[in-house]
Amino acid sequence: MAKKPLVIVTRKLPDAIETRLMELFDTRLNVDDHQMSKADLIEAVRHADVLVPTVTDRIDAAVLAQAGPDLRLIANFGAGVDHIDLATARQRGVTVTNTPDVLTEDTADMTMALILAVPRRLAEGERLVRSGGWSGWGPTFMLGHRIWGKRLGIIGMGRIGQAVARRAKGFGLSIHYHNRRRVHPDIEGELEATYWESLDQMLARMDVISVHCPHTPATYHLLSARRLKLLQAHAYVVNTARGEVIDENSLTRMLQKRELAGAGLDVFEHEPAINPKLLELDNVVLLPHLGSATLEGRIDMGEKVLINIKTHVDGHNPPDRVLASML
Ligand code: 8YV
């Protein structure tokens, strides 16, 4: 029997996926789910034929420089690949795949939850009840702001941006978007979406902003201090994409000074570290990167990883290849 390829998985995956990986390949699991150090990652790429990393592993040029001759595939468990140096991988002839599509609806649900939670003060109210500090209903008690009829500006109108737009439309928000490319007129028509070529122009007019672009060198701090200042003081910012797209310190300062109404953040610039000042604010809802965290989603992501590895090992082009030029 031919030697099975060595697949090294950096984090604990759902049991069903791990079992199938064990059946198909010579697989090394991380059953206690410890975070791999840089030395661990280097050790892994030295020996593996296939590496299965997640967003918590930095596969940079220094790690890839140590890769052994057998490393041919990095089958990322996750859609975002900003933790992998794609250019270096390509130079070294290493294919990179990801897991798109299967986390679109879950991430859009979580985004919608934040779009509702911040203006309606959901987390704040929950904290009050738990603290025992609720003294009863009152007509002017804990008033939030209405969502229906407001303008939502979506930055990045890919799969997730569109899935958010569909939901938001149902909640009576009008859809605006900025994207590198204008989407197909049929999609614009379905979503009744207004395209803004100028992000600055859009920002200045929206009630809610939601980020759905990938983190790339071009989108790092896309919402810079300057751009954040273009937002109206009653606007809310939601981010379920990547923390690096927003200048977190500037956002925090503006929230502190009430130059913005609030923010719903599922991702942070230096995860899992969070600007401590954010923790003191009532007008923010903070989540621990839960966007795609459903059991169903994780299994679907694992299935994609399996298919990407299997097709590659069998000598075919894996379906979810990522090329730097696609981002
Ligand atoms: C995943 C994500 O949980 O897929 C992504 O890009 O941000 C998350 O929802 C994570 O990336 C898994 O590696």
What does this molecule look like?
- With 327 residues, the chain is of the alpha/beta class.
- It has two domains: 6-101 and 294-326, NAD(P)-binding Rossmann-like Domain (Rossmann fold, 3-Layer(aba) Sandwich); 104-286, NAD(P)-binding Rossmann-like Domain (Rossmann fold), CATH 3.40.50.
- The protein is 35% helix and 13% strand.
- The chain is built from 13 helices and twelve strands.
- The strands form two sheets. The protein has a seven-stranded parallel β-sheet with strand order 8-7-6-9-10-11-12.
- The chain is globular and about 75 Å long.
- The protein starts with 5 loop residues before the first strand and ends in a 14-residue tail after the last helix.
- The mean pLDDT is 97.
- Residues 54-55, 77-80, 103, 291-292 line the site of 2-keto-D-gluconic acid.
CATH class of the largest domain: Alpha Beta
Strand arrangement across the biggest beta sheet: 8-7-6-9-10-11-12
Terminal CA distance: 40 Å
CATH architecture of the largest domain: 3-Layer(aba) Sandwich
Heteromolecules bound: 2-keto-D-gluconic acid
Inertia-based shape: globular
Q: Look at the helices and sheets and give the structural class.
A: alpha/beta
Mean pLDDT: 97
Instruction: Tell me the CATH superfamily of the largest domain.
Output: NAD(P)-binding Rossmann-like Domain
> What can be said about the biggest beta sheet?
7 strands, parallel
The protein's oligomeric status is single chain
| H/I helix tally | 13
Under CATH, the topology of the largest domain can be stated as Rossmann fold
Proportion in helices: 25-40%
